[in-house]
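quick one, 215 residues, struct below
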Amino acid sequence: MERVDKVMNHPVFRENMERIEKAEIDRFFCRHGLPHALDVARIFYILLLEEQVSCDKKLVDNDNEQMSVNMELENGNSEVLPIDKEFVNGDSEMLPIDRELMNGDRGMLPIDKELVYATALLHDIGRYEQYENGTPHNEAGAKLAGEIMASCGFTEDECARAVNAIKGHRRDSSDGDVFCHLLYKADKLSRDCYRCEAEPECYWDAEQKNMRVKY
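---
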């Protein structure tokens, strides 16, 4: 993932990650450094894969057909994209997402795996600014993320999608946008509450806590 490597080696990303890790070195509760960002990225990608499986199955079930990778794509007659080929043979970097869930249009919209990882890696990049001056980290992070991603080769549309998801990741208010919703969900699912010493004192409600392995 060349563009993801560029993000991870970007001086602004590295500087802010180092600042966050130093600021949280004595933090008792959850931290927001690189290990957390990578956990979120991997879960985010899994959730998107699962969402696509669910969408494909609904489309197939509606036609009373057996769920399978649709081979009609080879001759251009199909409106259903296959499950990510990387899942099948490691060759693809593209993840199909139901455009109907994204923006109300029927059909499939490919999402680049690099976009998924870059968005997750950058979702908490504004934490240090929040510690320094109180700016909400989702707002500070969205600004930094847009600048970093643009300089790492992401398109204007990809940057806009990532910025929108990062701005909204603190609350599940995605208004039907599956990309935003699943970033929020991945962020919450990344925490291993079942083995956390701080769990008894954590402000999360009992139903929010991950008290068993999910991903």
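The radius of gyration is 18 Å.
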